[in-house]
Amino acid sequence: MKVELKNLTKKFPSRNKKERAEVIAVNDFTFEIPDGTLIGLLGPSGCGKSTTLNLISGLLKPTSGKIFFGEDDVTDLPPENRGVGLVFQNYALYPHLTVKQNITFPLENLRGKDKMTKKEMADKALEIAKLVQIDTLMDRKPSELSGGQQQRVAIARALVKMPRVLLLDEPLSNLDARLRLQTREEIKRIQRETKITTVFVTHDQDEAMSISDMIVVMKDGIMQQLGKPQEVYDDPVNLFVAKFLGTPPISVFHGTVKAGQLYIGGTAVLAVPGAPDGEVYAGVRPEGFVLDENGPLSCNLTGVEVMGRDITIVSTHPDCTNTEIRAIISAENKVDTSSSAVRFSLKPFKVHIFDKTTEERIRFAL
Ligand code: ADP
Ligand code: MG
Predict the structure, then answer these.
(1) Whose CA is nearest to atom 23 of ligand 1?
(2) Ligand 2 geometric centre to CA of 124 (Å)
(3) Omega of the bond prior to 273 within 30 degrees of 0, cis?
(4) Residues 6+ away with beta carbon under 8 Å from 325
(5) Can you tell me the distance from the alpha carbon of 173 to that of 171, in angstroms, rounded to the nearest whole number?
(6) What is the C-alpha separation between 163 and 296, in angstroms, rounded?
(7) pTM for the whole thing?
(8) pLDDT higher than threshold 90 for residue 77
């Protein structure tokens, strides 16, 4: 099921009586989620992710704009008639019901031609439980399950009516690190198998990048960029997006462009043909640094971390806005740790420059 948002806006009245300004939680969103894809809504806390999800589910009414599922305008449909499955951060299972009863719960209320017999419900519950791999736990109560298992029950409950759209709001946030990794792989697998159009909300860029076919990066209720995770990483539209994606983060330097050259700390570090003269932020991805004893960028070496295939060179630079620069190079390189300086040259396609005032990307010829 294709989902389309058209000029979707949600304003909340101010909670602060003195300050009347309303909050625009979702500001004029227009984008399409193609049928069968998993889209990640990504952004810092308070940027409007849950509001967007709740507009799609119907739990919230938009201030203006429209939502379509396929060709159907669902903007005024109540949540129960939209055919959505919802999963939240806190699993919200019924504590007094067994796993099986929790999963069949949404089926109990079906009426008319959709009404199911006890046997049909049990079969359906087992089928879905197998899909999320909790079929051996059917008679347990939620309190007898681990966090990861509880979240699988919540996912099974959201899937049991075969929703047209699956909506997940930070579903992994309550899990420990190992379970988080495992469960996100599971969600990806379940989504691939069921091909249900899925919206996955998270503030964790690593999670969004690894699980999503497409990501939408948001800030202050405004959509910044939409694209495949790797495309957005490689081709950010502004400084916010560049900084939000990537671990270790992009290193951002104060720089100047003059006559097609990028200067950092008075030294020309890279040719940027076609970029206009002016003050810029220059962002360098960790994999964009090349260890080079004659390289133009000289940094103060503070540490070297060997991680199997890769080495992380940790350094500082007076014109870098990051407290430390983390450069990742192949372990085949030898770093002279006796020296207090380390010199780099830069890979042009791993360097992004941004207007100092607007923070918009400035493109240069590669
Ligand atoms: P996120 O899920 O990205 O953390 P939310 O969608 O929950 O963000 O919130 C977006 C903005 O809208 C925030 O500024 C939040 O305070 C505000 N907001 C959310 N719900 C309400 C509400 N019911 N009333 C007033 N303001 C709200
Ligand atoms: Mg939220």
Answers:
(1) 12
(2) 31
(3) no
(4) 251, 284, 289, 299, 313, 314, 315, 316, 317
(5) 6
(6) 56
(7) 0.93
(8) yes
